[in-house]
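[Solved] Which block belongs to which protein?

Original post:
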Amino acid sequence: MISVLQIHPKDNVAVALRPLSKGELPSPLQFPLLDDIPAGHKIALQDIPAGDKIIKYGNPIGHARKNIRQGMHVHTQNVASDLEGLLEYTYTPSFEDIKPAEEEAFFWGYPRPDGKTGIRNEIWIIPTVGCVNAIAKEIEKKAKLLCPDAPDGIYAYSHPYGCSQLGGDLLHTQKALCGLIRHPNAGGVLVLGLGCENNTLESLKEVLGEYDPRRVKFLLCQECDDEVSEGAALVQELCEYTKTFRREKRPASELVVGLKCGGSDGFSGITANPVVGGLSDFLASYGGTSILTEVPEMFGAEQLLMNRCRNRQIFEKLCGLINGFKSYFLRYGEKVDENPSPGNKAGGITTLEDKSLGCVQKSGSSPVEDILLYGDPVQQKGLNLLEAPGNDLVASCALAASGAHMVLFTTGRGTPFACPVPTLKISSNTELARKKKQWIDFDAGRLLSENLNMADLSRELFELVLSVASGEKKAKSEELDKSGIAIFKDGITL
């Protein structure tokens, strides 16, 4: 059994599939190791002079800080990033359309009057401002007593924003909240305001646009004698409304799936991310939609995505997205390569290019159909790219706000967090899946541990997604507290 994997024929490094010892001659290498190599970390396949590129996934992930000998451990001690600030890009189209699936695929969802379909039939209580978070929780408690038969549950969400915000920073909060208010997984929504915040109900409604008063209710706490009782009464009305919906057979073309990774390791770009990329392509073949985010984790791999843009207009929007996010870093005096995290490095990821080239594997091979700014609702079928940071909670909530029914979250280190939509955790290694059964929904590490076929695993994951969408299974994160909303903040606080 092989112990070392060269991912691409052009690579001058390989990845250790298990912990390796100095002096060992692991298969299929023809030379002994000069260092101990942890699992997921890189080995030099040849002598690499100082200044030469380190090649992984067939692309540069940085350069050698000093001479690296064949068989050495290749990591942060001898590799540096090549990432720079703002760049000019060239559009060199290189993509093929995904072949339409010959058979049909379905899930059981809740058709909504606006033409969307939900995969859950929940009631959401959404505060306009952090000042009323505790009131929202009290309304949730009382409403659960009044509505014990609420279809899929009553959930009050919390966040610290909505006041002392200005301009684009306030707009970020409003767009995120409005995306959740519109989300089809919520059969009914109570929007809870205080009355003196910057994020007034009037200004929020301007961002929200048209809404169904049967589905969305508003309450200002400062105008109530007993805001908890009045709020619970409104939730009772919403509960009766949500009971009118029933699951119906819906085509997979109506599914929207968010793509995210976190706590990545050296196996993420080999197993979990490509398996999710295969699912993304499967979904595209059925006319469905996927959304990839984490813009900083596109740095170093952006040209690959740019070459897959459907047309020049989308390419130019992607250039703006990448350089715009780099400008955000530079505006605060930060380096654009201030990544990966300590956990990523411990798992074998060396530079941001290394992380990004693994990260974008989640996008499969589909053409890029649209670029979304933070909080924008998804409109185009197929693969979309969304403006959001790499932070797990912020990015996952951004995917939900843009309309993702669920988030597929790949991880090599493990994480228990939940967000408003079902969040399936997909492990890059079998050891994690065995250790954290209470967190992990799908073990993509079986690609290596059981020598399974990539396409078969992607198909298996697709079937799991359809099952979760149909309510036949729940994501393990749905059993945890999903009440927090993490919003992208970029501005001063008054």
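(Second protein starts here: sequence line, then its structure tokens.)
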Amino acid sequence: MIPLIVIVGPTSVGKTALSLHLAEMFHGEIISADSMQFYKGLNIGTAKIQSKDMQGIKHHLIDILEPTEEFSVADYQKLVRNKIDELIQNNIPVILVGGSGLFLQSVLYQYEFDGQKRQNRTNVLYEAFTNEDLYELLKKTNPTIALTVHPNNRRRLLRSIEIAESKADSYIDKGKILNYQNTVMIGLEMERTALYSQINQRVDDMIDAGLIEEAKGLYDRNIHGQSSMAIGYKELYAYFDGLCTLEEAINIIKMQSRRFSKRQMTWFKNKMDVEWYEVVPEHLKETIELITSDIQKKVRV
């Protein structure tokens, strides 16, 4: 039985450090389930692990899409499931790491979309809606999906509204049937004040590491789509457009990152069967050792 170890939690909580340790302990490989890390060129703002920090551990599904490409939850599900299946078939333990609840849920549970193509009824139903109207509707229906869609992409907006209004979510909530055996789901959480401090510091570190220059490179290439809506990029785009000062943009990045971490925790706590571990920044190493010991008792390799 090849184990699938899933690590979830809000941004800046320590998921990367835990994933590296577990991959080394179980001789496994890591799959990034962060949808924005799929994009080439979005490195600093997505906290994408660099080759020098991988400790020789193979990572998958990083830098597989051009920043001009777009994809849906269904596309994401197919990509990640195919990679999990490939590794398990080769007897390689899988460490799946991500922070997007809906996307991970679509991979791990028996989540089926109600129809893969937009039906004519959707076009007719929302014919009088502007793109702005559609985006506001999507945000109300499912704010998590809305984060992945550009407000001006009408085709993607309509498809995302269909997905958000489908029966898939209720089906998962009723059944919660996992796709994979020998699965362990670990969640990292942190006291809110400490987490927010970590998030603010991470944003400052990203700015020092060159996030402004990275975002400007995308902006200058006229990259306007799903990738540019990621937190850290859309706020800097507003700065480049002259809509705010740099200081205001950085403060908004911090605020949006904090809000996103809150939404992440709400989703994971309500939608997924996760065993939670409290992280204290000064004692992360001890928490990792405890988690490793607990997992060793549960999984069958």
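Accepted answer:
You had them paired correctly. Confirming on the second one: The longest strand covers residues 183-189.
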